[in-house]
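Q: Hi! First time doing this. I have a protein sequence and I read that you can turn it into a structure. Is that right? Here it is:
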Amino acid sequence: MSAPVVLRLAAFAAGPGGGNPAGVVVVDALPTVDEMQAMAAEVGYSETAFLAPDPSAGDPSRAWTVRYFSPEAEVPFCGHATIASAVALGRRHGAGTYELHTAAGLVPVEVALGSAGEATAAFTSVATARRILEPDLLATCLDAFGWTAADLDPTLPPDLAFAGAWHVVLPLRSRTLLAEMTYDFAALRTALEDAGLITAQVVWRERPDRFHARDPFPVGGVVEDPATGAAAAALGGYLRHHGLIEPPTDLTVVQGVDMGRPSTIGVHVPVAGGVRVSGTAIDITDTA
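A: Yes, that's right. Below is the predicted 3D structure, encoded as structure tokens:
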């Protein structure tokens, strides 16, 4: 049997060279966990998604089981790999709605294909949630970045947010702090792993409907993601919970700029339930 083909797409690209690379593997039946982990490590992107049709569905081409692997670990949900997967399915089976059965729950995705071959997709996350960020964990995270409480935006509370995976949200008081971000990889990885978190989402609010973000992902063996759809969905839920937006409303998350991979993530926050995240996905060869 030949090895599965790995499609390589950049999700949320804001132009040539932008977006977050993801591997997408579409197969008739999922490989073993060890095989998927080995393939993800070989691909080397922050996430590789593995998709197999759901045989119990009326139309198996529209319902898929999905698992996500970073180079070092499986994660329950990944936003940018979901957008890339949706575009890959749309190219194969046509535009429309697909059901993705993830470890976090059912995630519907919609795919639109343009006349020139351009593709966009949108997913609706599972219901969002949040938890209090305990002072000790906050202090540990700040130490890993070399920041103090005075570097945080006093109008945006640090918190823990969920939209399929848990993230620590650290809002900064200035764009300069975000641009100059560095951190202790080992220390932050330990802190996040011990707390069951996937990334640290560091954000700066440019205006009420526009945020700049950076997302270290040491848990997956990745220094930083240039676009993080799961964290963007979690951010939408966080803002709604704290009454910092008036839903339904639309937001834009700009990410990857400081890495040289500019990315734009569209976020629609409804009154309740999951958050809708939208963006492009283009072949990696188109981003060179």
